[in-house]
Amino acid sequence: MKVLFLLIAMITLFGNDIKDAIKNNDHKSLNELMLVNDQRFTERSDSLDYLMYAVYYGDSSSVDLILKAGADQNIQLSGKTPLMQAVKYKKDKALEALLKFNPNLLLEDKDKLTSLDYSVKYRNPKAVKLLYTIADRTEEIPSILDKISYKLNGTDGPYLFYENDTIKKITVNSENQINSELFDSEYIEIKRPDCDKFFKVNIQNKILIPETEYENIPRFIATSDIEGNFDAFTRILISSGVTDEDLNWIYGDGHFVFIGDMVDRGEYVTECLWLLYKLDYEARSAGGQVHYIIGNHELLNIEDDNRYVVDKYIALAEQLKITNSYLFSENTVIGRWIRSKNIVEKINDTILVHAGLSNEIKLLDLSMLKLNNLFRDYLSGKKSEITEQIVGSFGPLWYRGLVYDQSKYQKIDDTKLSEVLSYFNANYIMIGHTVVEKISTDFNNKVIRIDLHHPETVEEKVHYLKFNDNKFYNCSELNEEELLF
């Protein structure tokens, strides 16, 4: 039995070493590891796992080494071939490396889609050109490229870019024309998509890193996962008394909590971000506070994962010859502001976090302040094994184990949850990320769930959470209140 455990440990260590070599682009070590036991690279489960890993990291040299060692790319892992994965996630260098070894382009996934179909479905123009040329279907390429191209969709912006000692202002007008000019004002005006009015945003010269913990806060309003739905966002703000009809802060010393995912999916991400930016500073001036907790979709945009970005934003980036992630970089006013925010905070005895806090994160033995600082380190390029865990599936931006099981873990039990709360000296934890039918609680009120499908039409009511006089309420825009506890 001891021999078996030792063998398993050695295999696991060997596998981890290989993945580390791939991740770190250490091709010399990878080659040496393959020479130690080249049989593993001709066995289906191991070789395909390593090949998928190399594709994920877009490392063409690792892909080349693994294929030369005998890995078969014409088999599937989780229903997809490595070629399908490279096409889907636009790993262009890995795609080119795979194509050198003549993969079968006509293999189908569980939905009967081939790699050619993936190039169209996931709007990958480079893959379309390469795969349709190899398949001798070049006559189809022009029409496909037109079909999958990203197009602007009317008024958008402004975007403010730092350029040396100046700021450049980019806007898109109703005729889809992009305008660029030097910005030398103290404010911008944003056209509201829900009416003909504008709202004014004062541009701040200094970015403030928010505190992590706030005590003796008597009242706050909370929502999450707006995802570019400007109409729902403004209806929540106005009906809850956070702003007036003109979207000016009127909540005094109250706090407004937004628990992540302002971006993706919706058509009015820019307007939503500028509005929250405006309220962030208006609240401070009035003695209040806006809490913008970063969610997984903010991280996806920062890291240029555009799977959920609507067409017009990708089209703008393409026409400006930048990546979509550049819009969220330190080189933009909005990007610099977003990157200053936290991934976890605490108001009174309630933790605020986008997805959840897992027992695995607790075992890192880090304070909330340290988690926030390490996350900002990660965004600035200072990555480590710990930061990878913080942004991973058990981390505050992704973990769904406070709501249900996932493939990598089961729903947390009450004992472990209590240990997590105790570690962070809290009684409750408020989360977004995982959609629920209504604002509600679980684990005897320890978990407060506020992610909803926000309505797209005025026929449906918006809902938000209210905390007042040590009580939590599920509220609607019609002043309906349900006491949660």
Short recap of the structure:
With 485 residues, this protein is α/β, with parallel strands linked by helices. The chain has helices at 2-23, 27-36, 44-56, 60-68, 82-88, 92-99, 115-121, 125-134, 141-148, 230-239, 269-285, 296-302, 311-320, 333-338, 359-362, 368-379, 385-390, 414-423, and strands at 156-163, 166-172, 178-183, 187-191, 198-202, 213-214, 219-223, 255-258, 289-292, 344-347, 350-353, 428-431, 440-442, 447-449, 463-468, 471-476, 481-483. 36% of the residues lie in helices and 16% in strands.
- What does the oligomeric state look like here? single chain
The count of helical stretches stands at: 18
Approximate strand percentage: 15-25%
Shape: globular
Query: Separation of termini?
Result: 53 Å
Tally of extended strands?
A: 17
Mean pLDDT metric: 93
Structural class by sheet pairing and helices:
alpha/beta
Strand order of the largest sheet: 6-10-11-12-14-13
Determine the fraction of residues in helical runs and give it as a percent range. Answer: 25-40%
Low-confidence region ranges: 1-14
Radius of gyration, in Å, reads 25 Å
Largest sheet: 6 strands, mixed
Describe what this molecule looks like in 3D.
This protein has helices at 2-23, 27-36, 44-56, 60-68, 82-88, 92-99, 115-121, 125-134, 141-148, 230-239, 269-285, 296-302, 311-320, 333-338, 359-362, 368-379, 385-390, 414-423; strands at 156-163, 166-172, 178-183, 187-191, 198-202, 213-214, 219-223, 255-258, 289-292, 344-347, 350-353, 428-431, 440-442, 447-449, 463-468, 471-476, 481-483. With 485 residues, it is an alpha/beta fold. Strands 6-10-11-12-14-13 form a 6-stranded mixed sheet. The chain has a 6-stranded mixed sheet with strand order 9-8-7-15-16-17. A 3-stranded antiparallel sheet has the order 1-2-3, with no helix packed on it. The longest helix has 22 residues, at 2-23. The chain is globular. The termini are far apart. The model is unreliable at 1-14 (pLDDT under 50).
